[in-house]
Specification:
38% helix, four-stranded antiparallel beta sheet, 12 strands, alpha+beta, 443 residues, five-stranded mixed beta sheet
Amino acid sequence: MYPQKIEGITKPNKYIAVIDCNNFFVSCERVFRPELRNKPTIVLSNNDGCVVARSNEVKALGIKMGTPLFKIKDLVKEHNIAIFSSNFELYGDLSHRVMSIIKNKVQNYEIYSIDECFIDLTDIYQSDKSEFSRDLVRTIKTSTGIPVSIGIAPTKTLAKICTKVAKKNIDLHGVCNWYDQDFDSKKNILINSEVGDIWGIGRANTPKLQLQGVRTAYDFAMMDRKSVKKQFTIMGERTWLELNEIPSIKLADNPEPKKSIASTRSFGEDVTTLEQLQKSISGHVAQVAYQLRKQKSKANILIIFIRTNNFGTRPKYHNHAVIHFDIPTNSTSLMTKEALKALNTIYEKGYYYKKSGVVVTNLVPNCIRQINLFEDENTLRKLDLDEQKEEKLVSMIDRYNEKSGFRIVKLAVEGENKHRWDNKKQLLSNRYTTRWQEILKVK
């Protein structure tokens, strides 16, 4: 019998919703290009390699996520598919606008990704949660141009499933409420949800479950709890409980800080000189340092790496260097200085480099300060003053760059904004909302 009755657990009357932007990257492109509506459209990955976003028209053609562009050239030509490079500056700004509307409507929320947000509707003043959500769908669409779907359920996992139902059924007007469904409808929703698509299960565990005859969310929900915990640990058990209407995954009002932060990227064309690698590594360091400051953390360890293409006939080379800081830091200038010193030790002439990157790890909160026991009081006082000056300057630069929408103020070693070896983005649309020179012109 679904849902399973679980001894000692009383089901709370919770209303958890997830707001999911429909085909987000494609929708962002369509906001300023109305002629793209109802036209098959795709967005490509870095270096314009693979499909990372598809309109419904493209999905209907059978084109899968991750498909290399060269494999669908005939389909692109046959169906006149519009193609765009990833415009993360535009997507990030429109995401911020969508999330700002959500924040103004509800108190308890969790921004899960660039295009998804969980909200708690349990205590909102409006008794009709479905109507509240439909109004939110209309508000977001009117204010930003981005279509969204909302799933409402007792748990986050069921809410995610309901969102997919809302996307597929236009009669629901963007909202699927689990509480509005009768028993048979709830059962059918789970039966029509493949086990590999369940949030928290994923593709890795799908073959193992299918061997046991577990092919749908309903099959998984009807498994024995002890068996689920034994095979899939506590995380699998939480998913099982959530499918049985028992909230087990809380809203993360204050998400856990990341334990490591990375910035890596393949070059649009091979890099051969130390100067080019210095610019690339400096850019990566600036990015991870900013992310450290954003989550109020500092790093004890910085790792840099460079490598050539793993394929082809050219000589192969890869190397990395590890930098340990005596005092944890999130200073862009200090980290860049040490990273460039380390780069000099691993760079080898004569190779065609394809990728570089930076990773910071062993992170600690800003409030934790490790000092050198052998430093005298005057030296420590000077270090404190220098650190305060650095933090004040960097904070001002971060605010200015955030306001500008991109990193307009940076270290000179990073060079110009665009390098010829940066990611290939030959089909990049305008950054309509963050660049004055690219703002939409109305005739």
